[in-house]
Design goal:
Blueprint: E1 4-9, H1 14-19, E2 27-33, E3 46-48, H2 54-64, E4 68-71, H3 78-83, H4 85-106, E5 109-112, H5 116-119
Parallel strand pairs: 1-2, 1-4, 2-3, 4-5
Helix pairs in contact: 2-4
Length: 133
Amino acid sequence: MARSTLLVTGGTGLLGKALAASIPPELQPYWTHLRDLPAGLAPSRFTRLDVADRESVFRLFAELRPAAVVHAAAMGNVDFAEQHREVAWQVNVGATQNIVDACGEYGARLIYRLTRSSMATIPPTMRDHPGIR
């Protein structure tokens, strides 16, 4: 029996790395990363993905057909994000919308947690935006 695919965005971040030890055996996990892989990680389980690139996100979903997605990719550096709000918006909101849309298109379940540091990158005037729930 084929295992269901679990896609973890932001696989080299704190949450992505922590999940590696707790993936149930019935799932086939794949992690995404944007920058170079840290030493010691198995490259066969990772794929480079810029979650802000909508076409790339949809291509990966078409290839992997994930049953579930843990969306952990985000800009976590609050100081940088506050100084570069447009970039932070693209990563923490626009990219998340790409993942949400791809999950809808391919029928994947989405697991997502908005952190306090991610929320800090959203200008106060935008926090009531209908795309932010």
